[in-house]
Write a structure and sequence with these properties.
The chain is of the alpha+beta class. Helix content is 33%, strand content 27%. A hairpin with a 2-residue loop joins strand 1 and strand 2.
Length: 78
């Protein structure tokens, strides 16, 4: 499932990303928490998928939307 996802810590967006496989990417972030140099600490995540917005199937729209969200939320890890 394509989409844009948000890693959240204490109700604040700390990372915004885009991917072609949402659940696999979240699992990779959780696994990265075991390795300190790549750690992105988060306690929740949310996502917007291509099921909600069909145009997220397109890589360039997904990348554009991700950049807009990064600009809007100014996440710590981006």
């Amino acid at each position: 499932m394509f989409g844009v996802y948000f890693l959240i810590l204490k109700d604040k967006v700390v990372y915004v990303g885009q991917t072609e496989c949402l659940l696999d990417r979240i699992a990779k972030h959780r696994a990265e928490n075991k390795y300190p140099p790549k750690t992105k600490i988060f306690d929740a995540f949310r996502y917007i998928s291509s099921k909600t917005f069909y145009w997220l199937d397109d890589y360039y729209f997904r990348k554009y939307f991700e950049q807009r969200c990064i600009y809007r939320f100014q996440p710590e890890y981006n």
